[in-house]
Amino acid sequence: MKRPLAMIVGTGHAVPKRILTNHDFAALGIDTNDEWITERTGIKQRYIAGDGESLTSLSSEAARAAMKAAGVTAPELDVIVLATASPDRLLPSTAVEVQATIGATRAAAFDIDAACTGWVYGVKIAEGLMAMGDAETVLVIGAETLSRIVNWKDRNTCVLFGDGAGATVLKRSTKGRGILSAYMRSDGSLADLLQRPAGGSLRPVTPEVIAEGSNCITMAGREVFKNAVRSMAEASDRALDGAKLASSDIDLMIPHQANIRIIEATAKHAGMPMEKVYVNVDRYGNTSAASIPIALDEALRAGRIKEGMTVMFVGFGAGFTWGSLVVRF
Ligand code: UT7
Predict the structure, then answer these.
(1) How far is the CA of 185 from the centre of ligand 1 (A)?
(2) N or C terminus: fewer CB in 10 A for the chain?
(3) Assigned CATH topology for domain 179-328
(4) Tell me, what's the pLDDT at 244?
(5) 23 labelled catalytic
(6) 242 pocket-lining for ligand 1 (C-beta < 6 Å)
(7) Half-sphere exposure of residue 313, counting CA atoms within 13 Å on the CB side?
(8) What whole-number distance in Å separates Cα of residue 79 and Cα of residue 106?
(9) Does residue 179 surpass a pLDDT of 80?
């Protein structure tokens, strides 16, 4: 495949109305505090979906903004790829609900789950479909309503995650702009370190499952942290190798927003000064598959990315999965 073949031509994002700050946990009876959360993670607040808000509604709002920015109408979409680990329903996919909501009457639509790396995987899938000649215009969404699947009694996890959606429209590359390299990996031997043990078909929801909270996310934080640092370092190396670029050629790095300490370690390994690293984990928490496309949309709208700039994206998540992209805008 000859690159660049596909480019990102429009982005958008959406978040729920309600903000939950670190100080708000006390009122929820959770034994934590702003100092611990800020020091260990860099998170100050996150958005939490309320009544009437869903993965479909957030994704559709983000999709409409991305289509508007791209100058594309819903019937022009050939494919919708929605990356999520918190679908509205287990069957059918949330992607088909978005397809119906936005009126993408011609589009094939499906969900993928690569956890926090989902949007990176989705972009790679979109590029592949375009390379095969099967699609001209693809909507890739990363979206989560993790607040609905976290254990609100587990302070190890409930302070970390947030809800939101980021959407991107991809079309054929022009003028040498677009995806210069893409890298995807996984290691399922470490699946138990970050998981949702029950609620799937292996262990359906029962009163016992609910009582023990095993239909919610569980995480061995320290182990996940170490693997995130290692894998994101590898992913940034592979992204640069693939694009035949050095870190000095990268104008902005947009890493997955899980923890400021992981972001800083990734930046250090890649040789990127923090001024060239986009950070919004303080305002959103970890929005898993939504984190990179939300950050991308913010960076574009804030003028941090201008035509001709080269951006590196690096993701890591449950699975484990990890991956990276280098894109010229
Ligand atoms: O999206 C991709 C996947 N996710 C990640 O990349 C997250 C990776 N992991 C992390 O970001 C960090 O490991 C955490 C932020 C989850 C935890 O930070 P840590 O520095 O690794 O802390 P720890 O797990 O070693 O816990 C330290 C202490 C424990 O107390 P003891 O056992 O030392 O007395 C915890 O019980 O902090 C305690 N603790 C808390 N204290 C106040 C855990 N959660 C909280 C909390 N508030 N919310």
Answers:
(1) 25
(2) N
(3) Peroxisomal Thiolase; Chain A, domain 1 (3.40.47)
(4) 97
(5) no
(6) no
(7) 37
(8) 8
(9) yes
